Amino acid sequence: MDWFKDWALTLAVFTPLVGMALVMLIPRANEVAIKTVALLTSLVTLAVGIGILADFDYDHTAKMQFQVDKSWIDVINARYHVGIDGISLPLVILTMVIVPLCIIYSWDHFPDPHNPKAFLALILLLEVGMIGTFVALDLVLFFIFFEIVLLPMFFMIGVWGGPNREYASIKFFLFTLFGSALMLVAFLGLFFLSKQQTFDITTLSALGGSGIARSTQILLFAGLFLGFAIKVPMFPFHTWLPDAHTEAPTVGSVLLAAILLKLGTYGFIRIALPILPQGAEVWAPWIGLLAVIGIIYGALCCLAQTDMKRLIAFSSVAHMGFVMLGIATLTDFGINAAVFGMVAHGLITGMLFFIAGSMQHRYETREMSRLGGLLISAPKMGWILGFCAMASLGLPGLAGFWGEFPAVLSSFEPSKLANGLIGGTDGTLWTFRTFMVIAAIGTVLAAGYLLWMYQRVAMGTPKPEFEDAHIHDVHTSEWISWTPLLLGIVVFGLFPNLIFSLTNDAASHITRAFSG
Amino acid sequence: MLDSAWLFPVIPAVSFLVILFFGKKLPFKGAEVGIASVGAMFLLACVVAAQWIDKVESAGHGSEKGLAALGHSVVAAAEGAKGGGEVEPIVHGFTWWQNGAAKFVVGTRVDGLVVMMLLVVTTISLLVHIYSTAYMHDDRRYTYYYAALSLFTASMLLLVVSANLLQLLVGWELVGLCSFMLIGHWWEEKENSNAALKAFLTTRTGDVGLMIGIIVCFFAANSFDIAKVNAYALSPGADHGLLLVAAVALMFGIMGKSGQFFLHTWLPDAMAGPTPVSALIHAATMVVAGVYLGARVYPVFFNGFSIGTSTFNMMAIVGAVTILIGAALAFVQHDIKKVLAYSTISQLGYMVMALGVGAWSAALFHLFTHAFFKACLFLGAGSISHSATHHSFDMREMGGLRKKMPVTFWTFMIATLALAGIFPFAGFWSKDEILATAGQGRYDVFVVVGLVGAVMTAAYMTRCVYLTFFGKYRGHHHPHESSPAITVPLVVLAVLSLLAGLLQAAPINVTKFEHWLEPVGGLPELVHPKFDYALATISVALASLAVGAAFFFLFKREESGAFKGLTQRSKVAHAGYTFLEKKYYLDDLYEGVIVAGIKGPIARASYWMNQNVIDGVVNAVGRGTTRAGRFTYGVLDQELVDGAVNDLGRETGSAGGGMTKLQSGQLQRYALLLLASVGLIGLAVYLVNVV
Amino acid sequence: MPINYFLILSAFLFCTGAYGVMARRNSVLVLMSIELMLNAVNLNLVAFSTHLENVSGQVFALFVITIAAAEVGIGLAIVLLIYRNLRSPDLDQVEQLKG
Question: What is the pTM of this model?
Fold first, then answer.
């Protein structure tokens, strides 16, 4: 299996690219072949992922595995360095699972203007970028994959999107690009200021910012922060998200919510925290502050929505607030919670967007005032929606809880080194405890908006305009694409250690700089 | 069996899945699976109880008999303390999740408290399952109903057997979910889904406190494990401030779940669900989860609130206030289920107050007896609506059902007497134990509150019974006795209401309940009062008096028709009545001000801010950039830069035109220019040198 | 004898020559004016040579005379060609240098 150890990640990253090339070669009229090739490609990628799962050394999750480190651009000392550890593994697998499900989901109903060839090619390109970002261990490589993701998503929104798609796609693109620019500056700063003039993430993490003055670290961290925070998105950089989600086609929304948002939080965990620990210590309370504002603020905005999909989009802001709160504590508890929260949010919000898309397909509206009685019209879908709403509001026993509760828990005792918002360790301690209470109140608001949505959409009786309409219950393709997600929500909720055991050592490894 | 407690949540959970996926294809549409599983659970609970009793008896065998012969009160205390030390709880677990070096286990714990709860939950659940076959027979979602009942049983049992607080939280939220599902069982109507939402959101508001309390406990004791948390709270080095915070926070959880003032408003609305559900979830089991939590981590409250040494504390006050406000509201209800709901609130107040005054075993004893007689009352109310009033619970449509429904009447009567605390029914023993314990410590005020509550309970229950069973029938249907599936559970519960109190009848030297219950490990020194004959006499006398007075008043009003109530005669009383009818305006405050405020102006303001301020900035940046671009292109580029280039070209051209004149091609001109230039340069050099 | 006398004379001669070069129309006269300017230079060279008691100035003067002879030769040939092409010795008509 040595061969596999060396090639697995490269295969995982570039198989979709090959698939994309194949899709491009098939004539546009031959839709079945296009779909088949795209699905097979994503399944092959998943198979590679399963191989990685089987071959992964679960006793050393903190160690980078399946590493490949080859010279790439010698002039700037950028290398093709990829690897995977306990933190990236769940995210990579999540990506590999979601993409084929999206392809299956869109099998029979591609949004206008149809064109499955371009659509599927873009999805596969997106997969390249997403997997690449999660496995890249070189800043330049990371940056390239991080940016590759923008392009297909821009076209998916801009071409297959809703009525306001141009505004949304351009906003999405420019907003994230703006963040990336500052991030790139920070990367360059890291390169020139680090002792060894390297872009290598593992080397830089091992250096842990030594040799970079504290004030410089604070500035560099700010650059990284902007790049990642916009992607997450954190309050107040979140406004591209609702527009992008509202306008994006269903599959685009699912991919955006399930995986793209995680690139930002992953960046914090993989790059910002370990490489610039002193910067992180100063910024942590501020990140925590923005996170709890996001939790409450996102929830309040949800309550004001009339559009179901936009409501779910705003709920992402609130949920990612919990993830960021966990990261901001700079503790292993927090990081564990954050990674779990990322996976759980991917499964749950992905599902919610699937359902919202399916409902839009059937009712041709997302206005909650016009919907109602889904439990009567399409009972199975109604129950699934209820299940997902419960999971999303953090019901214990389902996956969402394990992202939320440990994050709240961790903010009771943040890292002693964190400081900055209110002076002194004690000040930070009580700041975070206040955040804890606010975040806990956020869970009530989450229950409020989700159940309120559920009441308006699913309970009651159908509105007169849809009384006679034929609302088809869950399709076969929907069953196939939803079942794995639903199972994941239950399984991870019942056995959270499936993920915690993976992330735990890696999280401790990252936070060792903050445990002093 | 003591080691296999994990079966308790697992088997009903499996039953839930079976009913959910295959229920509709089964001959009895899933009901048989639910009944079989919960029946098995009941048998298991009995086995567990027998084994536990056996274990306790064998552990305390030597000392117990001799001591029992001596006076009782002092001995019981000694026994409790000793028993706790000798009879170890049975704890099992496996790793659930981990963080750092810490591993969090999911596990089961069996001790006296758990055994008692298992018996209560499985008994009531089994009876409700059986009852529902008749009551819900024609329901539109019969299978789904049984699935939800199974899920509820699983969650409740999970909550009960939890070895740690986190797992308890899981069960706690899951029972909340089941409550939500079952209150909103008929979700087609808006009121029902509203009630379901209200129940879920109110309890979840309390859960904020529970979550924080659990977190504080975790960091205090460095573990979620109940035994460790209790051990920490009892240890001399415990941080009192931390315990106080934990106790206050947990108290919010209790208030939400157990319908304590000021988070009680969801419980009456929860009556929108099917009646068996009200009996099971909103009377006997789920709502006492708060009390169970209070008892489970009692040392945290005991030391946090200084229960042993203070004269009043938050827990006792919340309980006492709840007793009174609940009982007062029960007077003004026309809906029989709402009377019972407010009565439940009031009785839960007794339990919480009991915990607050240090009467740990008395609180749980009351929980035990209350489960039986309140379930009996609810199921009785269900029987009436099922067979007499065509799904109405309005007491104004009842009356005179005594003869038509004898079984329902007699069981209802027994349960009412138990609730009113009349000797020798179950409620008498448990309520009296609470009052006696409170009288023993420094909590005399709460004894008075308890007595007043007892009087009020007796009076409103008399009103309820009178309106339902006496007088003339005021409805428009044909009342008849219900079928055996309904009456058998009623009879069973009535028997239990009659006899359950005898497990702990101090005057005849029976303290089995306390003896079997208290070995839970990690309890503070408990007070076990002597049986207070005076107090018992007073309370029974007062309750009887209240029954008599209420009966007389109602009878008189019915007979003469002219007997005007106080509310019609006195303005103050009328204002009071309105105040009660509006439920102290709490609902208006919560729904009208808080919820509507958050959902309305605050949410809208946030969204407005999002769209106009934050997004406004983004859009303004975008627009500004576009404008800057247009300016750059239009003014700077096209006019200034490009203009300059074009101008330069143009000027060069014209300048060139001028210059051509210089280039005449005539050598002499050139020579002239050459010379002139040399002259000028020379002049310049000269000037520069000179100046 | 002070050197200034020679210099004034030579300047006068040079100016005369320069004037002739610039102002006269007849090409032969322009050629002669050039000769005048050259001789003004020669005068200067010899004067400074004597004044500084350095013989190289006179050597240069000899060179200039030689070159002047050659120059006149070429110049007269050009004049002849101008005359042959334009049928006039008038320099105003020679504009071929204009681009």
Answer: 0.81
